[in-house]
Structures are given as structure tokens and as C-alpha cells.
Specification:
4-stranded mixed sheet; globular; alpha/beta; 2 domains; 13 helices; TIM Barrel; Urease, subunit C, domain 1
Length: 428
């Protein structure tokens, strides 16, 4: 007897299958299974996909919106000032409580892998202490990676490097940095060289806030690619944001993108936050704050989309919904071909796991029984609808269930109920 049987589920590649779960693994995957199960779910042709992954987040600040006061202007500068006011007031207990509440929200959205940056420029390492505890608590249901992030600059903050090394010694997973926040371009490049060397010496991944500005001369990703190649770090490296690419001339980009591809590193844009924070120095024409995703894809670079923030001093919105991220990418980049829209779904599932160095989550016989059942027919429809997560499963255990989104109508001569998923266009 199976533990769980899903009938008539549609995989991202279009196949309609039955999926049987036993002992936390996918025991069987076939067009029709003749089997009994402790629980049977009729998927009715809805999309069954790997869990979502967020390879770029800030959990130490999440859900802190309004502390110690609201960001009234909605600007980055006020957000930075607010974080400076809040940081001395942080306690491990308060950080952990907000982080755990966020993880509850993430699970409800099928988000089961998160890489979070942790500010190490507080000499107390308050957030590090809190999130190490949270990582242990959520390990049964969320793969949580911590990045030692010198938010005030590795060289700009006098104790940043010492604190970063202390955080790594305590078990933080990834080396982080923010070169464009150093005092000079030279210091930014120097910080990258130092951070990559630390990662090489400790055999750790690297994840850099890279060129998150409107400045076309913010070209630290060039140095990161060079150091990645020189030290042989390859797929252990992530360049996050890289939004200065939208301001670079095409000739320079034609040199830069092959260097990124040659290095083997990943790129993680964050469309929600970047479309709001970038272009602030412009009147019109206004720059859009976006990475050159189509060009990077064409060069063979793994691009995964991240969320960055949810209800914190910098970004007052967000809901732990990676489909919201994909939806923004479709519009803002833009990527509206059928292939590109389907890729946007892949960017918040498979590609995110790849950028985090996690195993391939593709559903297959013998693989982990971790998946999300969505109220949508296919990946494009899931992005269009920001589809309801009907069922969230990790290693065969049901973590969350949400009823389908249905409207009860009272319209003369019209249907009594409405399912938004039935508005899908004809299949190709």
C-alpha cells in the first residue's frame, strides 16, 4: 500500500501521470497506476511541479516593516536608515520569531529551499545566532542556507572581515559580499578578491551582491568572473542582482557575458526589488534596473530568480510567492514568448535549486517525494495566475493544503461558480 497517490497530475513537460509515494520517495510514476494508498488525491489534470526555491533573500530583516517606524517615502535611502536604527534593537529571539513566521508563509507557498543573507556587521552577530537556530528548527521541511553578508562593506566596515570569519567558524554556509558599497571601485575589486580567496581556502560557495546600482561603471561582476575562473570556483559562485547590466553599452556587454559563461558561475536577478529600486537617479528616460537575462540564457549561463525581500525596510510588499517574482520578470524584462514564459517558471524551481548547489528536484521514480500541486494547467498558466498551492509535500509528508480558489457568482444566466484556471487558452 502506498502512503499517497496522486491521480491525473500534469508534469511541467506536459505528461499526465499518476504518482505514488512510499517512504518519502516517488515509488512509481506512470500514466496509470493500479495501486491502493492511504490517501488518494485526484489532481484533475493540474500542474505537479518541484518545490519552489529562492536563491536570494534577507531573512534577518523580513517582516520587520514598521520597526521602529514605517518607511514613509518608500525609498532605498530611508530603508537603509531604518535598518541602521533597527539593528541595535535586534534580539536573537525577535529575529528568530520573524524568521519562523516567514518560513510558515514560505511553506504555504511551496517554497522549500531558501538562501538567506545575514548581516555580519553587527559585532554581536545577533542575526547569525538567531538564524543558525532557525536553520536547525526548519531543517525537516526547508533547506535553508545562510550567507555571511558584510552589508556595510567588507573593507568599509572596520570589523566586517573578522565578523565574517567568526560567522563562518560558527557554521554559516556561504561567503557573501557587496563590492559596490565599498568606498571606491578599487576597494570593491579588492574586497572581491579577498572574499573569493576565503571561499577557496574554506571550500565554500560564494554569493555576491554585485553591481546592484544604476552605475554603468559598476563592473564588479567582471572581477568576480575573473576570480571565479582563476580560483576554479565555478558553479560554487553566484552573482546576485547585476542590474548595472541594463546601463552598459552593448560592446562591453558582448565581452562581459562570455566571461561570465566561461567562469561557470550563476546569476540571480531579483525582479521585484530591482524594478522598484533602480532608476531612482533618473528623470526620463528611466533605466529599468534589470539584468540581461535573455542574453545570459543564450550564452548558457544558469539564471535563477530571487525574491530578495518581504515586508522589510527596503521592500514593503511581497508574500513569499516565487510566482510573483516570475510574473514580474515576464513583464519587466520582458519575456513574453511561450518558451520564455515557461522558462520563468523553471527559473524559480529547477534553476534556483541549481544555483544553491542542491540536488535536481525533478520528479522521477526513486527521487524524493517533494512537490507542489498547483491550481493551473501548466507552467505558463501557473505564472499568469500566481496559482494557488493546493498541496505542498516534502519527502512524502504533506506540509500544507489550500482549498482551490473558486468564486461564487450571482449573475443572471451565468455559471454559479468560477474557477480562474479554466480560462487557459487552447493547448499548443
Amino acid at each position: 500500500m502506498l502512503d499517497l497517490l496522486l491521480r491525473g497530475a500534469r508534469l511541467p513537460d506536459g505528461r499526465v501521470v499518476d504518482l505514488g509515494v512510499q517512504g518519502g520517495r516517488v515509488a512509481a510514476l506512470a500514466p496509470r497506476l493500479e495501486a491502493e494508498a492511504a490517501r488518494v488525491v485526484d489532481a484533475t489534470g493540474r500542474l505537479l511541479a518541484p518545490p519552489f526555491a529562492d536563491p536570494h533573500f534577507h531573512m534577518d530583516a523580513t517582516l520587520s516593516l514598521g520597526l521602529p517606524r514605517l518607511n514613509r517615502s518608500g525609498t532605498l535611502l530611508e530603508g537603509i536608515a531604518l535598518w541602521g536604527e533597527l539593528k541595535p534593537l535586534l534580539t536573537p529571539e525577535a529575529v528568530a520569531e520573524r524568521a519562523l513566521r516567514y518560513c510558515d508563509l514560505a511553506v504555504s507557498q511551496g517554497l522549500l529551499a531558501i538562501r538567506t543573507h545575514v548581516d555580519v556587521c553587527d559585532d554581536r552577530l545577533t542575526a547569525v545566532e538567531a538564524l543558525l537556530d532557525v536553520r536547525a528548527k526548519v531543517a525537516p521541511y526547508i533547506s535553508l542556507q545562510l550567507v555571511a553578508f558584510p552589508q556595510d562593506g567588507l573593507l568599509r566596515s572596520p570589523t566586517a572581515e573578522a565578523n565574517l570569519l567568526r560567522a563562518l567558524d560558527r557554521g554559516v554556509d556561504v561567503v557573501g559580499g557587496i563590492p559596490h558599497f565599498e568606498r571606491t571601485m578599487e576597494d570593491g575589486a579588492a574586497s572581491l578578491r579577498r572574499l573569493c580567496q576565503i571561499a577557496a581556502d574554506r571550500s565554500l560557495p560564494v554569493d555576491i551582491h554585485c553591481d546592484e546600482t544604476d552605475d554603468p561603471l559598476s563592473r564588479h561582476v567582471e572581477t568576480l568572473a575573473a576570480e571565479t575562473t582563476r580560483l576554479g570556483l565555478g558553479a560554487r559562485v553566484v552573482a546576485s542582482h547585476v542590474t548595472s547590466m541594463h546601463s552598459m553599452d552593448n560592446y562591453y556587454a558582448s565581452k562581459l557575458i562570455p566571461l561570465i559563461a566561461e567562469s561557470g558561475m550563476h546569476v540571480v536577478p531579483n525582479p521585484l526589488i530591482n524594478i522598484t529600486l533602480q532608476g531612482r537617479a533618473d528623470t526620463y528616460p528611466r533605466r529599468r534596473g534589470l539584468t540581461r537575462i535573455p542574453e545570459l540564457r543564450a550564452a548558457g549561463v544558469n539564471v535563477a530568480l530571487g525574491q530578495d525581500c518581504t515586508m522589510d525596510p527596503w521592500y514593503p510588499l511581497g508574500s513569499a510567492d516565487m510566482l510573483e517574482v516570475a510574473h514580474m520578470a515576464v513583464h519587466a524584462v520582458p519575456m513574453t514568448s511561450r518558451e520564455a514564459m515557461a522558462w520563468c517558471f523553471e527559473s524559480v524551481t529547477l534553476n534556483g535549486h541549481r544555483a544553491m548547489g542542491l540536488p535536481d528536484p525533478t520528479l522521477r521514480e526513486g527521487g524524493p517525494a517533494s512537490f507542489v500541486l498547483l491550481q493551473a494547467r501548466d507552467p505558463i498558466e501557473a505564472v499568469r495566475l500566481r496559482a494557488t498551492r493546493l498541496l505542498v509535500v516534502r519527502d512524502g509528508r504533506v506540509l500544507s493544503e489550500t482549498p482551490p480558489r473558486l468564486a461564487a457568482l450571482s449573475l443572471p444566466g451565468r455559471p454559479a461558480t468560477l474557477d480562474p484556471a479554466t480560462y487557459a487558452p487552447p493547448e499548443d
